[in-house]
Specification:
By secondary structure, the chain is mainly α. It contains 15 helices and two strands. Strands 1-2 form a two-stranded antiparallel sheet. Helix 2 crosses helix 9.
Amino acid sequence: MTDVAQPVNSMSLRLRLGWGLGSLPMSAMFNAVSLLLLTFLIEFVGIPAVTAGALILVSKIYDAVTDPLMGVVSDRTKSRSGRRRPYLMIGGILSGLSFAMIFTVPSFDSQNAIILYIFVALILNATAYTVFNVPYLAMPAEMTESYHERTALMSFRVSSIAGGQLLSSVLGPVIIAYYGGGLFGHSVMAMVVGVAIIAVCAICFWTTHDAKFTVRVTEHSYSLRDQVKMALENKPFFVLMMVKFTQLFGFSIFIAALPLLFTRVLDVSYAYLGTYYLFQAGAVIASQPMWVSLSRKYGKTSCYYATSVIFAVASASWVLGTASDPDWYINVRALVTGVGAGGLMLIGQSLLPDTIEHDFRRTGLRREGIYSGVYTTVEKFSFAFGPAVLGLLLGALGWVEAQGGVRAEQSARALMAIDIAMLVPTVTLVLSCYCLSRYTLTEDALAKQPVTQI
């Protein structure tokens, strides 16, 4: 097998902006589901916490196991637009429509019918996310071969991820509150965000028309199982997967518990989540040049350790939160959390194309799709188990679901689950840093590695 790279000029600012913009709609959808869905199901739809967590878990597991398959499909796709770009439009349209379905729940006579409807909507949404995101994440390894340019390119992605947080986590709660909250407020929010998802995905598709891509001139006969096995034999990639799983598992529990923290512990309105994410997402975007510069000077792994400490301290501080906390105190926490999150996202994601480049030099094969598929599989498993674990924790400590759309009073014991959720990121980031200590793929090591000829 041989691969031929399309000759193009170096990446323009328009191309970097356009590709990075693709993370905005997926981030908006992903964050809205991670932040709002569990609370929506137990506080407004009236589904028991354990059942709600199980719904999210099953849909995310389905989402995860389909990622490597999508990676193989995109690797084998032949198109004048490249192997990846056609899926940006297809996945974007399906994502917007299915997202609107999730938060627009019809009036069924039985709770079982409601549960079935939500499950179908989640499966459709998971499929749409996979169709877009796996090919999208495979593109950077083909777009540039520069170690540091990948980090700079990923900074556009991280900024767009923060932009997606602004759309879903800032504007979302504001829209929900403006339209009276409850089922109707969530439905309006989902329709507005759904339209935005489709529009931005279309922009990403058109602005990446000149992105460098690889043309396959022969096919390989590897099975999906063989592809995943070979990907996991790439030691730096395997270590990166352990880093991402431990990091994101803690993130997912923290994010899912935030609406409960704000409304039940801090005793502020649902719309205040928008203010919080305005400060956090702003800090994520503003911190990107700093983290790019520091990673060049001190290395990516050193920056990851530093940013882990920042995020761990900020998230754990919420245990001290009370209803008497002034606004400025909440906003300072949001800023510090955003600086930490910005570094974690940038460094973790910039390591992915490095490990893909390592695989190419080691084997001579172009397998960007399968690596992106496995990467997103781990990402989704992390976010699958987080809400499920939180749902089990809430149920075990006696959390009472809504009745007839009215929130129930909670015991002090049930509220303890929120404090536990705020401490989880500290533990998981310690494990994540331990895993990263086994990562040895430095810039010099990658530069000295010869390309295998086949």
